[in-house]
Sequence to fold (181 residues):
Amino acid sequence: MRNTKKKSRHSPEAVRAFFSRSDLLDRIALRPLSHIASNWELRWDGAQYEHEPNSFAEDLNILIETVISSPRPINYHDYEDIIAKMQAEHWPIQKIQGRWIGADYRGILEQGAFRDVGQQNLINALVGRVHAALDQKNQDHFDKLEEGHLVMLAGIISIILYHIECNGESHLYQELGEEII
Fold:
């Protein structure tokens, strides 16, 4: 049975601290996107990740602020399920005993997100996963997450940034001074 009790949001400071000065965030969330933005390494300037040319740092900063300002979902899995169900219309996947089978879960979310207008369901899943992590003892920073949660959270961040770029909404283009055709 799913938890239907509404939980409070964590403070903006706690969310920023969760993402700050990470040794892993750039390697496991941004490096897989290095074919799009080759400058995948991040540097924390004390308040946010430094804006650099050919980097997703600005998009990541905006995503962190989105996590801070968004309402906390009751159950983030519901939003991931919406995306997976959209993809199930096109792939031979199904949910059995609470797990999606038939394809890699991150692949299901990445492909399903093409049908997720503005990646709103993915963003809700991200917001929920960050707050759920902060609810746990000893998981107050991205680098401290249990491996499975770390990989999944990084995957969702990568997918969102990938789709922002695919939609031509990335600040990467503004930093490069390119017009989107």
User: Anything to note?
Assistant: Residues 12-176 form one domain.
